[in-house]
Write a structure and sequence with these properties.
Layout (H helix, E strand, L loop, with lengths): L3 H18 L2 E3 L10 E5 L6 H8 L6 E4 L6 H9 L2 E4 L6 H12 L3 E4 L17 H9 L3 E7 L1 H4 L13 E4 L13 H23 L7
Parallel strand pairs: 1-7, 2-5, 2-6, 3-4
Antiparallel strand pairs: 6-7
Helix pairs in contact: 1-2, 5-7
């Protein structure tokens, strides 16, 4: 697989987010330099996938609705930057299998385990699918929190607004297949750990009050 298109897009997006939104990134040292992992992010805006691609030091595989791939140039571009097609509104076993294939091949996959954009702009609850995927692939989950994209591109408009965008990566969370708990409970434990880590990262990203 060639990477020049991804790397070029990452450089352009980094510059755009940095100059246009004052992008600030914390915790990049928590991203494993080698080996597969799942990047589990909260989801506030359509800006989140390109933002994560710009902020993460590793190349990421994303999922996007399959109808986008029907457009010639757009579909070709999405494939060139490692995006996987997924059917919206139904359980897409093919997309899950492709994510597992990539993880087992040593690649990384980014997901939004809340299940969709949070229209309130607040942190939601990660669903247990993230734990199921982590255990099936036997890879760690790297939690990441994004802030500011809701203000930069709210769900009620398609116009960009000025906003400070921040990203924080947290320490990896290990899957728990060795636990005596049922698979459903193990997967939920991973999901709950992701949610707790998001809230902890929100504290890390909280603007510091100036000292007098």
């Amino acid at each position: 697989m060639t990477h020049w298109c991804y790397d070029f897009s990452q450089a352009v997006l980094w510059l755009w987010f940095r100059l246009g939104f004052g992008l600030h990134v914390e915790g990049r040292e928590h991203v494993p330099p080698h080996g597969p992992f799942i990047l589990a992010s909260n989801h506030l805006s359509f800006l989140d996938p390109p933002l994560l691609g710009a902020a993460c030091p590793r190349r990421l595989g994303f999922m996007a609705r399959d109808t986008l791939f029907a457009h010639g140039l757009l579909g070709a571009y999405l494939r060139s930057v490692h995006v996987m097609p997924v059917k919206r509104g139904e359980s897409d076993i093919g997309a899950v299998r492709e994510a597992l294939r990539r993880l087992r091949a040593g690649e990384t996959v980014a997901i939004f385990p809340e299940g969709g954009r949070q229209l309130s702009g607040q942190i939601g609850q990660a669903k247990r699918g993230v734990g199921l995927l982590a255990e099936a692939a036997q890879v760690p989950v790297v939690p990441v929190l994004v802030q500011g994209t809701f203000e930069a591109l709210p769900p009620t408009t398609n116009r960009l607004a000025r906003a400070k965008i921040r990203v924080a990566f947290g320490p990896p969370i290990l899957y728990t297949s060795a636990s005596a708990a049922s698979p459903k409970d193990r997967h939920q434990q991973v999901a709950d750990a992701v949610t707790r880590r998001w809230h902890a990262l929100a504290v890390v990203l909280k603007p510091q009050q100036p000292t007098l």
